[in-house]
Amino acid sequence: MGTTFSVKWVSNDPGSVERIAPKLEQSLAAVNQSMSTYMEDSELSVLNREPAGSVTEVSEGLFQVLSLSQRISESSDGAFDVTVGPLVNLWGFGPDGRITHAPEQAEIDRIRAHTGYRKLHLDPNGRKVTRDAALYVDLSGIAKGYGVDELARVLEGEGVDSYLVEVGGELRARGTKPDGSPWRIAIESPVAGERDVQRIIEVHEIGVATSGDYRNYFEENGIRFSHTIDPATGRPISHKLASVTVLSPTCAEADGLATMFTVMGAERGFQYAVDNGVAAFFIVKSDEGFVERMTPAFEPYLTE
C-alpha cells in the first residue's frame, strides 16, 4: 500500500505480541496480494488484464470491496468510481509515476471513454465480475480501510476486545485504553508542509478515515492539481473542500465515503452526509482561512 501501519491492543498475555503480530502481517500481505495495483501478480492486476466481456471469479474479500464500492457509486451518482484508475495514472498519481505537465483534453476524453462504474457488473452467485469495457479498476480509495478492518478481524479472532488499528492514517478503534479512558484521535489541520491538530475526537466501535487534497498534488504555472479525480470531468477536483473525516462502523465504508465526499465538495458532500446520517467533519478553505462544518452525527465524538 506504500504506507505504514500500527496496531495497539490491550492484553494481559505477555506473549500476545509474538503470537498475534505475524498474523497481522499475513493479513495485510493478503490484502496487498488481492487488491494492489502496484503488484503485477495481484488478483486485481490479473482481473484488470482480462479481456472486456470476460467473466472472472474473484476472492471473497475482493468481491466484498467491489460490492461496497458499487453501492457507494450508486448512492453518489458516480462521485465515487473505482474505474477512474486510468485517469489517476494519466494525471501522474498512480503506479506509472509523476508528471509535470497537465494532459491534453483530447487525451482525457479518450481515456474517459474507457471508465465508468456502470460498466462493471457483479454477480454474487459465484462472486463473478464482468467488465463491459477494458476497465482498469483501482481500489486505492477504499482498500486501505478494508486493510484496517482485516487487522481488526484478526485481533478480535484472537480474543482482543480493546484495540486501535491504523493504516496510512485510516483507523478503527474498539474498547478502551488500559486505564479505561477512550481512544483519542487527532484530526490533522489541512496545512501543506505542517502537522498541526485541528480537532480531537474520542472513538469506540468505529472506523475513521480522512481524505484531502493538501498532501498529494503537483503544480504547473501556479495551478495546483489534486490527486483526487472527479469522474464526471476526468480532471482533478477544483473546489474548496480541503479535507473530510468520516466515522462509520467499518473503516472500508469510512474510507470510501471520505473519498466520495472529497469528489463531491463541501456543499453537495455535506448535504449528502446530513441526509444519510453520516458522521462527517468537513474543513473548507475560505478567504479568511479554514472553516469547520460537522454533521449532527459527528458532534458526539468531539472532545472539549
TrEMBL record:
Keyword Nucleus: no
Residues that bind Mg(2+): G141, D255, T259
InterPro entries, sorted: ApbE (IPR024932), ApbE-like_sf (IPR003374)
Assigned keywords, A-Z: Cell inner membrane, Cell membrane, FAD, Flavoprotein, Lipoprotein, Magnesium, Membrane, Metal-binding, Palmitate, Signal, Transferase
Record's catalysed reaction(s): L-threonyl-[protein] + FAD = FMN-L-threonyl-[protein] + AMP + H(+)
Cellular localization per UniProt: Cell inner membrane
One GO location term (cellular component): plasma membrane
Cofactor: Mg(2+); Mn(2+)
Main location: membrane
One Pfam assignment: ApbE
Cofactor binding remark: Magnesium. Can also use manganese.
The keyword Oxidoreductase appears for this protein: no
Enzyme class: transferase
Annotated EC: 2.7.1.180
Membrane-topology annotation of the record: Lipid-anchor
GO molecular function: metal ion binding; transferase activity
Family note: Belongs to the ApbE family.
Protein name (record): FAD:protein FMN transferase
Organism: Marinobacterium nitratireducens
Lineage: Bacteria, Pseudomonadati, Pseudomonadota, Gammaproteobacteria, Oceanospirillales
Gene: apbE
